[in-house]
Every structure is written in structure tokens, then in C-alpha cells.
Specification:
Chain lengths: ~210, ~525
């Protein structure tokens, strides 16, 4: 997935089939300065939402046609990062549980206090921002990894494993001096400030 | 006869008179017995022989008391002696009913007339005896049948009258009629005149009109009205009245029956109230099943209202806000409050305990008015409802709440039948159609799981249900409502899968399209 972190200001996306609720949410969010986009159905949202736009999704769990849960599944298969806050009715607790298990960030019951919703939205936007920052960090690391030669990669893997230069030279049948040069190139290309930093970067990418 | 008779010698004459007398005796249907002053029988006619079972020669010289049962037998001689002494007649010249005794000891009712043979001393008596057993039986039968009539009237709360306005004929007013009206029997005044003051004021004009038509144009009536007795009790009376006219058109007789139908009316009222209560119960339990959908439907506008209101507050406290935003939000708040109110209003009018009220209403209107409630439930379950209304659908005479109850019940069943089918197939068609007889046919068609044989067989039975927590009364109540409206309710398989429920309501005669 390609992420363009600079594409837009974080936006609150609202999907609700009830136009009155939709309009009310739009006005509320605008009144506190959030950019808002509203959609009347899950399908409208899938058709209109650009994948890489930062923000969060406020989603009515119960809608005719595609339900909130179905939209959530669709977004999961697309590896969407967008945190989802579900709006639920009184009898919808089992559905809310299902939504949480499928990775929803939070849910809020109708009718709700505006501050409760706004707090959750702020949390969601923070989470989205940090998710996206982490993601772009990982992408940067991967790009740097791609600049390494196969030999440099070999040396780096052994360094990260905690082996001394002498041992690496023995393992790869190189002179200790050559290992030192490769190692310095690795630190430079990976923009690592220390061995510990290098290890952290490699682990972060490998975790995926 | 005496004028043609020829003169004759005295002895011949005496012989002839005796023969004639004998012939007379033998021809007489009544039995004749002649006794002397000591009650000894001197003569017994043939008829008397047959009546008592004796032959004349057996009785001549015997005391006549042999023909009487005790205690008359023992008393007879004394009575005769008393007469001979005082000459005050008790029996003579007066027909009396007595009890006589036959030879075999059996008794019979007899009418007896006794005459004194004049100019003879000591006196003799002639008794004419008539067997009145038959007459007595007839009389008793008459008395019995009158008693039975009275009893029947009593039991049936029925009273009748026969009156003769011209005074020619015996008027009759049965005692039950007076009792029914709480009147004391008096006079033979025209019953109608006695009834009218008792009629409930609300019915009086109508009754007065009917009585008047009967008087003036001999038009018969058959009507129900209420009466108020002096003690305030209310009775329902069914009165059928007729006038019988002579050839010249004059009314010669008024006949009529009054039937106290209070108990029947009360029973009917009770049955109707019971049906209303059951229908009401059905609506409440339907609403109970729809509670989640209704809560959702009220929650939506409340959520919008709360959110708009808070948004306005935030806008107003910010340095630069657009007035039209606040204005539009306030407009929305008003609308959403009405929307919530509308759901509650429909709900209230649906579940309110109320009198059944039939009114003339368009068949399509019934569907449209129901849609808000039906959609509430349908939306909640991801079901779409499509209306297919016939532009020719007639007016019907119906209680709109009860008919909507039927439709809503069918819609709910359809929704429940579709919970296991994919959402894109969850649709209900609500249709009106004019059938072959010109009546309106309502259809609720779904694409659900349909009905198997076993379910079909039991479908309309009370307490039969396929739903967990269902009462099993929905369809039974619906059926009774439709039947009470003169319609039919049935179901069949939907060719597209699922089931179709149909019911008819008779088009109102006043209907026009």
C-alpha cells in the first residue's frame, strides 16, 4: 500500500443512512473545525473514499443494504488504516462486540453526548496519525534496506544478530577490514545512529 | 205440528203420548232418569243405560244415589228430604256440574239438569244427564295451553297484544307485556300509548314515527328500542307491530309482540368487548415484538436533535459563525421532533384501547397510513417494502385500526420469515387489487422461507406459533377481524419463493372510484 502522508488534513468520514443524523454530525464536527465528509451508505463510501486519506470513520452499525459491519469487513480486506467508531442503538450490543473483535476502535450509543463523541474522534485521529507515522517510518526503512547490496545485507543480518566483526569475517570468509567497511556503509545507508538503532529498525520492518 | 193433528179418543191419545215420550227418551243424547220422592228410580233412558252401564230393569226401584260416588251418594237422600220440606231448590232448574259413577265404579264429569214433574203428589223428578268428559278435557287443555303460553312468554321474555280500535272484539294484552314494561295491568288503552312515555328519549322520535305510520297507513314495523322503567332500569325491546285492515281500509285490529332482548344484547356487547380486548392484546403484543425497531425509530430523531442543538451552542460561542447554519439546524430540530412525535402518535393510536368504529375509508389509505409503522420494523431488519396500489381500489366500511393491525401482523410475519435469507432478497410487496366480485383484495407477499404442509395445517389455530416467544394469536386474531368485516383471509405459496397472505374486504355499496 502506498501512503501519501501529505495528501490532506485528517478528515472525519461519516456513514449513516439517516440524513438528519448525518447532517447533525456534519454540523457538529464542522463547529469544532474538523473537515467532514458524509455518505448515505457503505457503498457510497467505498466508491468515494480515496484509500490514502487520513482521518477516522464514524459508522452507523445498522443500515439497510450494506451494514456497518459489512463495510468494516470490506475495509479490512483492503488493509484500511482508518480507525472506526461505531454508532449503535440500544439493542445492538452483540453487534458492537463483533465490531470490536474485528478491530473497531470504539463504539458509542445513540443518542450520545457530543463531547463523548468528539473525545473519541480526537483519540481516533491521534491514533490514525501515529499509525500513519509508524507506517511511513517503516516504509522509509524498507526503502533504505533496498539500497543495500547483497553483501551489505549479509553483513547487516549478522551484525543485528549480535556477532562481532571477527566472527562475521570468519563466517563470510572475508577479511576483518572488509567487514568493517561494509558495516560502516550499512550504518550510513540505514541512517543508523547506533547499533541499537539499527537493530530496532530491522526488527520493526521484520515484525510485519 | 199440532195443527195437523186429528181428534182422537182419550185412551188412544194416552198410548200415543206414552210412545212419543219413549221415542223422545230414546232419541235423546242426554241420559234421562226419573225418580220418585224417595229417590227411587222409575225410568232410565237408553242413553242413561249406556252412560252408566246398567240396564233399566236392574235399576228400577233402586235409590238413584247408586249413580253417584261418595260423598254425594250418602248426602243425596238428606238433600232430597230437605227440598221436600223447604221447597227451596238447589238443583232444580239449574244446570250443574257433578261427578257421576258408572256400574264399574269409574267416575265421569256430568252436567245435570233436574226438573220437577208438576201436578203430582208426592212429587217426581226428571234428571237430564250429559257426559261432559270431552268438554272437560277440552277445557282443561285450553287452560293448560294458556298456562303454557304464559310460561313460554315468561321464559322467552315475550309479550303480545291484540287490540280492536273499534271496540268490536275482545282486547288482549298478555301479563308478560306489562311486566316487561314495568307497568301494572290496567285498561285496554292502546298499548302504543302506554309504551311511548317509557321509551328512552334518544329512541323516542323513531318509535313515535313508527307508531304513527302504523296508525295512519297501517305500515307494519319491526324495530328495537330501549325503555326506561320508573326505577331507572334500562331494557332493550324488540317490537313487531302490525295493523289488520278491513276491506274499506279501516284498521280493525292491532297485533304485536314485544320481546325483551336485554340479556341477548348484553351478551352480544360482552362478546364484542371481549373481541376488542383480544384484538387490543394482539396489537400490544405486536408492538412488544416491534419494540427494538420502534426504539430505533425514535432514537434517530432524538440523536439528530441532541446533536444539532449542541452544534448550535458551539457555533454560537465561536467568534465567526454563519447565521444560516444555526437557522437551518433549528429548522431541522423542529422537524425531527415532529418526526419522533409522529412515530409515537401512530403507535399510540394503534395500541390505544378503543371502541371499534367502522367508517368509510379508501382501501389504499389503509395501506398508506400503516406504512410508517411497517417501515419502522422493516428497516430495522433490513427489509424493503414496496407498495403496489390499484388505482381502482374501492372504499370499504372498516375499522381502520383493526385492518391495519391485520396488515401489520402479516408484515411482521413476513419480516420474521426473511431473517435467514440474504438481505438483497428481503422484500415485501403490499398490494391492493380489485377482485372478480368487485371487492378489494389485500396481499402481503414475502420472499422468505415459505410454509411447509404441517405449518399450513395449523397456521390459523390459536396458540400455534413457529416463533420463539410468539403468542400464536396473531393470525387467529387477524382471521377473526377479517371475518367480522365480512371478508376472507388465506395464504398461498409465492411463485418467486416465500409466502403470500391475502384477505378481502367487501367494497362498500356507496363506493366509487
Amino acid at each position: 500500500m502506498r501512503v501519501n502522508a501529505n495528501s490532506a488534513r485528517p478528515t472525519v468520514f461519516v456513514v449513516d443512512d439517516d440524513s438528519a443524523v448525518r447532517d447533525a454530525l456534519k454540523l457538529l464536527l464542522r463547529s469544532v473545525g474538523h473537515p467532514v465528509e458524509t455518505y448515505g451508505s457503505g457503498q457510497d463510501f467505498l466508491d468515494g473514499y480515496p484509500d490514502d486519506q487520513p482521518g477516522c470513520l464514524v459508522l452507523d452499525i445498522r443500515m439497510p443494504g450494506m451494514s456497518g459491519l459489512e463495510l468494516q469487513q470490506q475495509l479490512n480486506t483492503r488493509h484500511s488504516l482508518l480507525p472506526i467508531i461505531f454508532i449503535t442503538g440500544h439493542g445492538d450490543v452483540p453487534m458492537a462486540v463483533e465490531a470490536m473483535q474485528a478491530g473497531a476502535m470504539d463504539f458509542i450509543q445513540k443518542p450520545f453526548r457530543d463531547q463523548d463523541l468528539l473525545d473519541r474522534i480526537n483519540q481516533a485521529l491521534d491514533k490514525d496519525a501515529s499509525n500513519r507515522a509508524a507506517l511511513s517510518e517503516r516504509n522509509a526503512i524498507r526503502k533504505r534496506l533496498e539500497t543495500l547490496t547483497p553483501r551489505e545485507r549479509e553483513v547487516m543480518d549478522l551484525v543485528v544478530d549480535g556477532k562481532a566483526n571477527k566472527v562475521i569475517a570468519g563466517d563470510l570468509n572475508l577479511s576483518q577490514r572488509t567487514v568493517e567497511i561494509h558495516r560502516a556503509r550499512v550504518m550510513e545507508k540505514m541512517q543508523a545512529t547506533s547499533l541499537a538503532h539499527l537493530v530496532r529498525m530491522v526488527l520493526e520492518v521484520e515484525e510485519e | 205440528m199440532s195443527a195437523t193433528r186429528l181428534p182422537e179418543p182419550a185412551d188412544e191419545r194416552a198410548l200415543r203420548v206414552e210412545r212419543e215420550f219413549e221415542a223422545l227418551l230414546d232419541a235423546a243424547i242426554d241420559g234421562v232418569v226419573v225418580i220418585d220422592h224417595e229417590a227411587r228410580i222409575e225410568l232410565l233412558s237408553h242413553a242413561a243405560e249406556r252412560m252408566f252401564g246398567y240396564r233399566e230393569e236392574e235399576l228400577v226401584g233402586r235409590n238413584v244415589s247408586i249413580l253417584m260416588p261418595e260423598p254425594f251418594r250418602s248426602e243425596h237422600d238428606a238433600q232430597l228430604q230437605r227440598y221436600l220440606k223447604t221447597r227451596v231448590p238447589h238443583v232444580i232448574g239449574i244446570a250443574r256440574e257433578v261427578t257421576a259413577q258408572r256400574r264399574d265404579g269409574t267416575e265421569f264429569a256430568a252436567e245435570i239438569a233436574v226438573g220437577l214433574v208438576k201436578g203430582m203428589e208426592p212429587p217426581r223428578f226428571v234428571a237430564f244427564i250429559r257426559d261432559i268428559t270431552e268438554r272437560k278435557l277440552d277445557q282443561e287443555a285450553l287452560i293448560r295451553s294458556e298456562a303454557e303460553l304464559h310460561m313460554a312468554q315468561e321464559l322467552a321474555n315475550l309479550g303480545n297484544y291484540v287490540l280492536h280500535p273499534d271496540g268490536r272484539g275482545r282486547d288482549f294484552v298478555s301479563p308478560q307485556l306489562y311486566r316487561m314494561l314495568g307497568l301494572r295491568p290496567e285498561g285496554t288503552a292502546l298499548v302504543t300509548a302506554q309504551i311511548l312515555p317509557l321509551v328512552h328519549p334518544a329512541d323516542r322520535f323513531r318509535v313515535e314515527q313508527a307508531f304513527e305510520h302504523l296508525q295512519t297507513s297501517a305500515r307494519a314495523f319491526d324495530m328495537e328500542y330501549r325503555t326506561l322503567r320508573a326505577d331507572g332500569t334500562l331494557r332493550y325491546i324488540h317490537h313487531i307491530g302490525q295493523a289488520i285492515c278491513a276491506d274499506d281500509g279501516r284498521i280493525v285490529r292491532h297485533v304485536g309482540t314485544l320481546h325483551d332482548i336485554t340479556d341477548r344484547r348484553r351478551a352480544e356487547d360482552e362478546v364484542r368487548r371481549m373481541q376488542e380486548r383480544i384484538a387490543h392484546f394482539g396489537r400490544i403484543s405486536t408492538m412488544g415484538e416491534m419494540a427494538a425497531g420502534i426504539a430505533h425509530e425514535v432514537n434517530q430523531p432524538l440523536t439528530a436533535i441532541a446533536t444539532f442543538a449542541r452544534a448550535c451552542q458551539r457555533l454560537l460561542s465561536s467568534p465567526d459563525f454563519a447565521l444560516e447554519d444555526v437557522s437551518a439546524a433549528l429548522e431541522q430540530i423542529g422537524q425531527q421532533a415532529l418526526r419522533a412525535g409522529e412515530v409515537i402518535r401512530r403507535l399510540r393510536s394503534f395500541v390505544k384501547n378503543r371502541e371499534v368504529k367502522r367508517e368509510l375509508i379508501g382501501a389504499n389509505r389503509l395501506l398508506e397510513d400503516l406504512l410508517t409503522l411497517a417501515q419502522t420494523d422493516a428497516r430495522h431488519h433490513g427489509v424493503r417494502i414496496y407498495l403496489q396500489q390499484s388505482p381502482d381500489a374501492p372504499l370499504v366500511q372498516a375499522d381502520s385500526v383493526q385492518i391495519q393491525q391485520v396488515i401489520l401482523n402479516l408484515v411482521r410475519n413476513s419480516i420474521d420469515a426473511m431473517l435467514d435469507v440474504p438481505e438483497q432478497h428481503r422484500e415485501i410487496i403490499l398490494r391492493t387489487r380489485v377482485d372478480e366480485e368487485g371487492d378489494v383484495e389485500f396481499m402481503v407477499a414475502d420472499r422468505g422461507t415459505g410454509l411447509d404442509e404441517a405449518t399450513l395445517a395449523e397456521l390459523f389455530n390459536p396458540f400455534f406459533t413457529t416463533k420463539p416467544g410468539g403468542t400464536g394469536l396473531g393470525l387467529a386474531i387477524s382471521l377473526s377481524i377479517v371475518r367480522a368485516h365480512g371478508g376472507k383471509l388465506w395464504c398461498r405459496a409465492n411463485p418467486l419463493g416465500g409466502a403470500q397472505f391475502l384477505f378481502t374486504l367487501p367494497a362498500s355499496p356507496r363506493a366509487s372510484t
